[in-house]
Amino acid sequence: QVQLVQSGAEVKKPGASVKVSCKASGYTFTNYGLSWVRQAPGQGLEWMGWISAYNGNTNYAQNFQGRVTMTTDTPTSTAYMELRSLRSDDTAVYYCARTTFDGTVAGVYWGQGTLVTVSS
Amino acid sequence: QSALTQPASVSGSPGQSITISCSGTSSDVGGYNYVSWYQQHPGKAPKLMIYDVSHRPSGISYRFSGSKSGNTASLTISGLQAEDEADYYCSSYRSSSTLVFGGGTKLTVL
Fold first, then answer.
1. Is B110 near chain A, with CB under 8 Å?
2. What is the per-residue pLDDT across A76-94, written as a single tens digit (0 to 9) for each?
3. In angstroms, what separates the C-alpha of B102 from chain A's closest C-alpha?
4. Which of A16, A105, B76, B110 suits A84 as a labelling partner, its CA being 20 to 30 A distant?
5. Are residues A98 and A106 in contact, defined by beta-carbon separation less than 8 angstroms?
6. Using CA atoms, how far apart are residues A13 and A20, in angstroms rounded to an integer?
């Protein structure tokens, strides 16, 4: 069965970076993309961007341009999301979600979420 | 990068039908048939309920349906049940291969 398993919770100081992983199983990794979506405490969903696992092409939301990098490692079927220059308002649960090949639909399958806490 | 507009809350009694709207622009909802709807229970990951405006993924109840008119998409839940109480989010494909979410709607089953 399809599974997306994310790395564990992180606590970071302002200005630091965080790298969250998302290990996929149960499907052909390169046939899909991965989107990253975050949710601050008590807030709604925010799309951060997506990466094609086929060719590594990325599209980032304007709000994160220059501060986020999404990558994949095909041999291990793992996607990564690195967010730099962390601020307190980056405290959120970060989800990966399997995305169609063309990036039009995200989320038939989701990771369990990774809580990132930014605090001094 | 504005989010899509959803009502903050809707409510209905068991057995009734409710509709949640999702308003965008011609650059997202109105320009593409790539509107999705998600259900999220507290502390859980979102669950895809509708994709491509009106298609249900495997295993999703027929009580959930989607539609679109112009720049506004809608999610209708018929035969409301207690377990439908959750937050609902719409999303749309937007030009330049990006996605955008709505602000979310809290559904209360009375």
1. no
2. 999 999 999 999 999 999 9
3. 8
4. A105
5. yes
6. 16
